[in-house]
Specification:
The complex is a heterodimer of chains A (196) and B (202). Chain A is mainly alpha-helical and 196 residues long. Chain A is built from 9 helices and no strands. In chain A, helix 1 packs parallel to helix 8, helix 3 packs antiparallel against helix 8 and helix 4 packs across helix 7. Chain B has one domain. Classes of the chains: A mainly alpha (196), B mainly alpha (202).
């Protein structure tokens, strides 16, 4: 079975073709809110990727072995949000203990991740697409990498546009949205890469 | 009474969630390809917002400060699950079109933000006015945005032909890129309006 090739395709598809931010509109709030500087954007992306991979791991088990096994699917939203919130809390405590340097870098971005809809969206897409365990992990990691890619790119563009002569009413949010629109159009080009 | 009216009007313009507070943008961009979807999203979000503001303003005395955010989320997620099953049972077409973005109302910062900023500090009557104002403010921007996208994208408005059969669809308006571009230009235009006439708008 060419499963390795399939996993690679799934990864590329999640990162580029179905980019969470630019194609699926998930995680727009941090995408616009924390993208003023490339460094902070990268930290945010790193934290989100980490939590996303962990969430994919945790929600897969909860969904398969508890919710589906006991026919409790109506509790799905509630249990996923609790898992994400406690995972974020746990990751925060863990990083604080193990690596104070990383904690300082990610610090304020970690609590923000709880309300990042890319994470909740990713958790909900896994049962919808019937991914197995390995696919779920690859999907979660790919979603995080895609998010990081988008937020770092837009931060770079925003740093450049600061020196541009933007009309008064378009300053700030509107011009960022227009930049994101152009980026989304560029990302449409990846649609020809592969189909998963 | 004037006080209550001010709270209501606040959501329409001065603190409009989308173009002033800049929150709740994921559904704003994702589901506004037709007017029906935009309106349905506004109503679904509004239902969750109004219900949870009422409940939270009623029980705010008994929520310990340290665990208030998880408590808010639990109340919100209850109403979201309710909305999801209700739409699935009675409006399956709309539920299909909005798909993932119904459960994602849970993590819509607009809802949690209003609980934290308003419902947890104000009496129930005020909270209702705030929630209704925010709902109307959120919905009108969604409908405006989706009207522009549907009109140019499909040549229709809420399913009714406007430009006639010979109209060539502008695919870009329906694509994700068009969503960002249209919202960017719309917010820019609203900022312009706000600067010109906003000061006496109250």
């Amino acid at each position: 079975m060419d499963s390795l090739q399939y996993l690679l395709l799934l990864f590329i598809s999640t990162v580029l073709i179905n980019n969470f931010v630019l194609i699926q509109f998930l995680g727009i709030c941090p995408f616009l809110g924390v993208s003023r500087y490339v460094e902070t954007a990268f930290s945010m992306g790193l934290a989100a990727t980490f939590v996303m991979t962990m969430t994919a791991f945790a929600t897969y088990f909860i969904n398969t072995f508890i919710l589906e096994a006991l026919n409790l699917e109506f509790l799905q939203y509630m249990s996923f949000i609790i898992v994400i919130a406690s995972l974020v809390q746990f990751v925060e405590m863990f990083i604080k203990k193990v690596s104070p340097v990383l904690y300082k870098a990610l610090g304020i971005y970690l609590p923000l991740i709880t309300t990042n809809c890319a994470i909740m969206g990713m958790a909900l897409l896994i049962p919808q697409n019937d991914y197995n365990f390995i696919e779920s992990i690859v999907f979660g990691f790919g979603a995080g990498v895609g998010f990081t890619l988008a937020i770092v790119l837009i931060a770079g563009l925003r740093q450049e546009i600061q020196f541009g002569d933007v009309p008064q009413d378009l300053k700030g949010m509107p011009i960022t949205l227009i930049l994101a629109g152009l980026m989304a159009l560029a990302f449409m080009g990846f649609a020809g890469l592969a189909v998963v | 009474m004037k006080n209550y009216l001010d709270i209501f009007k606040n959501g329409l313009w001065n603190e409009n969630p989308i173009f002033k507070l800049i929150i709740g943008l994921c559904p704003t961009l994702a589901v506004t390809n037709t007017v029906v979807n935009g309106f349905a999203m506004g109503m679904a979000t509004g239902f969750v917002l109004i219900s949870s503001e009422i409940v939270i303003s009623l029980i705010k005395k008994w929520i310990p400060n340290d665990v208030r955010i998880p408590s808010f989320i639990l109340i919100i997620v209850t109403f979201v699950t309710f909305t999801d099953y209700f739409l699935g049972a009675f409006f399956p077409d709309i539920a299909d079109a909005l798909a993932l973005f119904i459960p994602l109302i849970v993590v819509n910062c607009l809802i949690l933000g209003r609980q934290e900023a308003f419902a947890s500090q104000n009496p129930t009557r005020k909270a209702i006015f705030d929630a209704v104002g925010m709902t109307v403010g959120f919905t009108w921007v969604l409908v405006a945005l989706s009207a522009i996208r549907e009109l140019f994208g499909f040549g229709t408005l809420a399913g009714v032909e406007i430009f006639g059969a010979g109209y060539t669809d502008m695919i870009i308006m329906i694509l994700p890129g068009g969503a960002f571009l249209t919202l960017g230009v719309l917010v820019g235009f609203l900022n312009f309006l706000d600067r010109k006439v906003g000061s006496d708008n109250g």
